[in-house]
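Changelog-adjacent note: as of this version, every example in the card shows the full chain rather than a window. The one below runs 113 residues end to end.
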Amino acid sequence: ELQQKVEETELLKMELQMLETERVRLSLVEEKLLDVLQLLQQLRDLNISKRALGKILLSTLESCRDPQPGKAHLFDVLDTLYHELTACELLQSQPLEKAQSRQSLSNPLVISC
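Full-length structure tokens:
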């Protein structure tokens, strides 16, 4: 009976570790998604054309068409989209003061659960 309790404890520890790993992964995805949404908000405020935004999205999807084994595909797509958006000429030409003042405002994209 004692051996059974030890085995159950070990299984619960492994499950807890897997849950913690998943929680961390989801937290990273959430942070990256928030970054992407903030960039999209900035681009919308700068009146980016739907065509230009579509090209960025298609470029991202083309880059991530073949998922790499061992990598979280969702995070990879979000990360690639984030880098594609940061390379956008509209954001590059935005004055530094304006970008900093936007970031200092409270975040309208935070979702309370």
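Structural remarks: Residues 99-106 have pLDDT under 50 and may be disordered.
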